[in-house]
Design brief:
This protein is mostly helical and about 190 residues long. The longest helix has about 35 residues. It is rod-shaped.
């Protein structure tokens, strides 16, 4: 095929001539030695060097090779993630995942991430580490208050019951310690 002018190539691709000039200047497409452009070569270069989401030019090889899949398992995992996200949002995802569906899934995930960040800024969503630290401090305070309970009230209770305050203090301390030890044992969920 004979070389075409920038204007002709722009018209054939459905873009502005400015976009063709910009692609030439950035080196995404190449001119022939005579200064004209080969349409098929331009289409191939355009697909290889341009993100399809930012291009009005649609070609068969429109998916960029920016992050190559390293194994079949990686590919299957990525596809299952896309299908799961689309299904959760009520978008029908068939057996074939095209660039449009992948882009939709990516947009959904970005929206979810923004929502989580917003909830975190509003202090509605709190990081797990902070919650654990707070719970640990609260339990330590509860444990200390419970351990002080016999020494504070043993004399009054012993007087009311008519028993030895030291024996009552020791018995209550032992019982409370056993209960607190049981409470602080890690919970294993089955």
């Amino acid at each position: 095929m004979a070389g075409m002018s920038r204007r002709e190539v722009a018209k054939a691709l459905g873009v502005d001539e400015k976009a063709v000039r910009k692609a030439l200047k950035s080196g995404r497409i190449k001119e022939l030695p005579d200064g004209t452009l080969d349409l098929e070569e331009v289409r191939a270069d355009w697909a290889r060097h341009t993100d399809p989401a930012h291009s009005r030019v649609r070609t068969q090889a429109a998916v960029p090779d920016s992050s190559p899949v390293r194994s079949r398992e990686d590919a299957e995992e990525a596809i299952s993630l896309i299908k799961r996200v689309l299904t959760e949002e009520g978008v029908a995802a068939g057996d074939e995942i095209d660039f449009g569906l992948a882009r939709t899934a990516e947009t959904i995930l970005k929206a979810r991430e923004r929502e989580l960040k917003l909830l975190e800024r509003r202090k509605i969503l709190v990081p797990l580490a902070r919650v654990k630290t707070h719970i640990e401090k609260a339990f330590i305070g509860y444990r200390q208050a419970m351990q002080r309970l016999p020494s504070r009230h043993a004399a009054e209770i012993a007087a009311a019951l008519g028993c030895n305050p030291a024996a009552l203090d020791a018995a209550m301390s032992k019982a409370i310690a056993a209960e607190l030890d049981e409470l602080s044992a890690p919970v294993v969920r089955s």
